[in-house]
TrEMBL record:
The keyword Hydrolase does not apply. It comes from the Bacteria. One of its GO terms (cellular component) is plasma membrane. This is UPF0391 membrane protein BVER_06129c. The chain crosses the membrane at residues 33-53. Keywords: Cell membrane, Membrane, Transmembrane, Transmembrane helix. It is found in: Cell membrane. Signal peptide: none annotated.
């Protein structure tokens, strides 16, 4: 278990010191804005579909 944790720390460190981390941060920012919008849209659709059934 400790070996796995050390391996994960090394891989995370390598990604942290390269441009991969900045790319992942950019994707995370995009997802941060897209997913709540999709959630609200699907919530409205589900509520309206539920009211049609009742």
């Amino acid at each position: 278990m400790l070996k796995l944790a050390i391996l994960f720390a090394v891989i995370a460190g390598l990604f942290g010191f390269t441009r991969v981390s900045s790319g992942a941060a950019g994707i995370a920012k995009i997802c941060f804005f897209i997913f709540p919008i999709l959630f609200v849209i699907f919530l409205i659709v589900a509520i309206s579909a539920g009211s049609l059934v009742l």
